[in-house]
Amino acid sequence: MSAINPEIRDLQQKYEELRVNLAKTQGELEEIRRTSEKTDRQTTKQFVVFFITMFIAVVASLVGTSIFQTDALRREMNARFENVDKRLDSLDKRMERIEKNFDDLNRELRAQKR
User: How far apart are CA 65 and CA 4, in angstroms?
Assistant: First the structure.
């Protein structure tokens, strides 16, 4: 029996060591789980913040670009309208000169008929 007792004692010691190691391992696993959950939450929050930031940046860029393009088109159209207005003014002046010449020609023809 004395031979069995040392074997049982050795087995009990190994069992205790394995139980302690198992408890340590379970504790480490639980800490890893908690850490990974915190990391997952933090990563999710960072992704949401990143997404919102990128969305705002894209929207601001689109709005800025559309404002710039609208302003550029407005300036271009104003320049063209000014050019058309100048041409119309020039055409009006020519028409007035032609009408004046026509009136002068009518007067001369009436004077010659008399």
Answer: 88
